[in-house]
Design a protein that fits this description.
CATH topology: Rossmann fold
CATH superfamily: Vaccinia Virus protein VP39
Number of helices: 8
Structural class: alpha/beta
Number of domains: 1
Shape: globular
Number of strands: 8
């Protein structure tokens, strides 16, 4: 994917962020706001065309084909952790991109709210939903916006992976009070190569690189979860690592205690 940003300065919030002004009740930290702006700017202005191609059936390079295959497997994993019948169930697709997962959820009957930082990607997603004949409530903005309402489930596939662990935990803390049952997310466990690439990337100006993927191990995430008082009613009950070529990501299922999940649980199920 392209790695050149449109400005040498840290991007300032544009149309993607109209509902999420700095200092809003759901803003977790100044670093989160800066990171959010960088991610939104990159995917909206630099990578939107490449992302649209990657999430379609169009021909791609061998490297991108492995990423596409990995993302497809991850999407099916998260879908398999939900009921095949989602009629009457309200779901937030947090970081919907071009809408592939949101469309799958809507086809199962879910009442889907889909949001992404990139208005351009949301426009692509809206077009695809219309072609698929499904109704989805699309928004461009911040997944943490409380105006989106409450949900039975939240699915955040590869949308929190650009944030450091404290920011990721803070984002889940902001979402948790508005979620009744499940939060399905992904993290990218670190490898020696990923850590090295991230270190090298820091040597370049921010304007010359894409938002980095932040490696977070399952153990580190579990520790962050256990250390959060605001997530003490949530348990990490299932994980699955997906590895396909250049794609490597771990699915994590968090369940509310009303479903039998508890943050104090020592074991998680791998499937």
């Amino acid at each position: 994917m392209p790695t050149q940003l449109t400005s040498e300065l840290s991007p300032t919030p544009g149309s993607s962020f109209e509902a999420t002004a700095p200092g809003g009740s759901h803003a977790t930290s100044a670093s989160y706001l800066e990171r959010r702006a960088w991610i939104g700017e990159y995917f909206d202005r630099t990578a939107s065309a490449a992302w649209k191609t990657l999430t379609s059936d169009a021909p791609v390079s061998r490297v991108r084909a492995t990423v596409r295959a990995g993302r497809d497997q991850m999407r099916h994993t998260l879908l398999n952790w939900l009921s095949p019948n989602l009629h009457g169930v309200r779901i937030l697709d947090a970081g919907c991109g071009t809408g592939t997962l949101a469309i799958d959820l809507a086809r199962r009957g879910a009442d889907v709210v889909a949001i992404d930082l990139s208005p351009t990607l949301v426009d692509h997603a809206r077009e695809r939903a219309e072609e698929a004949g499904v109704s989805i409530d699309f928004h461009s903005g911040d997944m943490l916006d409380p105006a989106l309402g409450t949900f039975d489930h939240v699915v955040a596939m590869d949308s929190l992976i650009h944030y450091d662990l404290p920011e990721m935990i803070a984002a889940l803390e902001a979402l948790a009070p508005r979620v009744r049952e499940r939060m399905l997310i992904t993290v990218v466990p670190g490898t020696a190569l990923l850590v090295a690439l991230r270190a090298v990337g820091r040597l370049f100006p921010k304007a010359d690189r894409a938002p980095a993927i932040v490696p977070i191990s399952e153990r580190a995430f579990r520790s962050g979860l256990l250390g959060s008082r605001d997530l003490d009613t949530w348990g990490m009950v299932r994980t699955r690592l997906i590895e396909r070529g250049f794609y490597r990501s771990m699915a994590i299922a968090l369940h509310h205690s009303s479903m039998g999940g508890s943050a104090g649980a020592a074991a998680s199920r791998r499937s």
